[in-house]
Amino acid sequence: MQVYEMTPLFEDVQEAKIFTDGKTFVDCIPRRNTHSIVEDYLVFKNNPVLKFSLKNFVAENFEIPAAKTPVNGQLHESLISDHIEHLWNLLKRSEDAVVNGSSLLALPHPYIVPGGRFREIYYWDSYFTMLGLKESGELETIRNMIDNFAFLIHRYGHIPNGNRSYYLSRSQPAFFALMVELYASAANDSIISEYADAIEKEYAYWMDGYDGLKAGRSYKKLVCMPDGSILNRYFDELYMPRHESW
Fold first, then answer.
1. DSSP class of residue 63?
2. Which of helix, strand or coil describes residue 219?
3. What is the DSSP-derived secondary structure letter of residue 111?
4. DSSP at 116
5. Average pLDDT in the 150-171 region?
6. Residue 234 confidence (pLDDT)
7. Are 183 and 194 within 8 A, CB to CB?
8. Closest by CA position to 219, among listed 227, 234, 235, 208
9. Distance (Å, rounded) from C-alpha 114 to C-alpha 103?
10. What are phi and psi of 45, to 5 degrees?
11. How many angstroms separate the most distant Cα atoms in the chain?
């Protein structure tokens, strides 16, 4: 059970604004069995006689994530290029271990995160990160990130917004093929065929329902305009508030 599935605890914590950032709680890791946590919470919630602090309950039962990378404008080096080189090391994460109860979708290879409250990889943002990695000669990191995205496609059928389970209901503009092309040109390596299956699988995700879609109609990620033109659309498939922005 994920934190955001722990009804009614999740809604109560988010509505009470225990954390100033709604993303904090969904990134928390339960310290013990989630069903037991919910059962204990219901005892307190349904007994007004008991003295109870929701904030303390969360602190006792969840490991609260800390921002690993400080967000500030201070340059660490005299040259901006050296400053960027310094940041790569701060923003690089090793391959993930699977942690029970964590919302993090464990990735098999190292990757770069935006930093601060963004403790995971993000899809189309990573293409622009790769442009910087290319300039820094970090081609191995680019390849690792591409392999991570291919892993997500094969496992979940698409690349989610980021490698969090609460992002699985949405994606971002499809840049995977461009990432592969970027690496192939930078490394002078004809690797595109190695990712053909992943590229085709992602294309099928975005184009599902294309055949027979009539003008003025929509289906999943597709919209057929009055003139017959087909557009892709980007939206969350869940009809509810975003878990990280409740």
1. E
2. strand
3. E
4. T
5. 97
6. 85
7. no
8. 208
9. 18
10. -65, -35
11. 70
Strand partners, 218: 223
CB-based contacts of 30, cutoff 8 Å, min separation 6: 3, 37, 61, 62, 63, 100, 101
Residue with tokens 């690993």: 68
Q: Is 60 helix (H, G, I), strand (E, B) or coil?
A: helix
pLDDT higher than 90, residue 225: yes
44-49: average pLDDT:
85
Q: What element of type H or E holds 92?
A: strand 92-93
Would the pLDDT of 76 be above 80?
A: no
How many angstroms separate the Cα of 136 from the Cα of each of 132, 159, 195, 207, 242?
6, 26, 24, 35, 35
d(CA 165, CA 66): 19
Q: Considering just the CA atoms, what is the radius of gyration of the chain in Å?
A: 21
pLDDT tens-digit readout, 95-121: 999 999 999 999 999 999 998 889 999
- C-alpha to C-alpha distance for 28 and 104, rounded to whole angstroms: 10
Q: Residue 198 is encoded by which pair of tokens?
A: 């992943």
Strand partners, 230: 224
The Cβ-side half-sphere exposure at 147, using a 13 Å CA radius, reads: 14
Helices (H), 19-175: 23-26, 34-45, 54-61, 80-91, 123-135, 139-156
